[in-house]
Amino acid sequence: MGVMAESMTEYAQPLLDETDGSLEQVQKAMSIAMMLWNIALLPETEQEKTLAEMRSNLEMDDAEFAGFRESVIEPMILRHHEMFPNMPRPDSEENTSPSSREKKYPGTGRNAPCPCNSGKKYKRCCGR
């Protein structure tokens, strides 16, 4: 299994643990995990829009969706942020244009440690 598949499986583990092990339930858990993985990568404003669309597709009333959001959606989005803290997100500083990053740390050598204290070389972090 590749790194991405292993990461996804580890991320989805709480949902997989709630299944009875049947193929149908495992597939459903993985589908939900993939949706929430993608939602976790969106800026917060886009997350809300996507969740509203998700609610209508799931055909849940407000109370059901609120419970689902509290017990599944929010914990899984938080889990994603905790498991993958360095994954760039569209609204994050790491995903800004190269010229704006270079202005932030002018004169930093490509092989120097990144001034953002990530522990990476500048060329592999903010100098990308």
Protein described:
It is a single chain. The chain is mainly alpha-helical and 128 residues long. It has five helices and no strands. α1 crosses α2 and α2 packs across α4. The two termini are 28 Å apart. About 9% of the residues have low confidence.
End-to-end distance: 28 Å
Q: Count of DSSP helices?
A: 5
How many domains in all? Answer: 2
Report the C-alpha radius of gyration, rounded: 18 Å
How would you sum up the global shape? elongated
As a percent range, the share of helical residues equals 55-70%
Please write the string of helix (H) and strand (E) elements. HHHHH
Overall pLDDT metric: 83
- What is the number of strand segments? 0
Chart the SSEs and their pairings:
Elements: H1 3-17, H2 23-40, H3 44-58, H4 62-83, H5 98-104
Helix pairs in contact: 1-2, 2-4
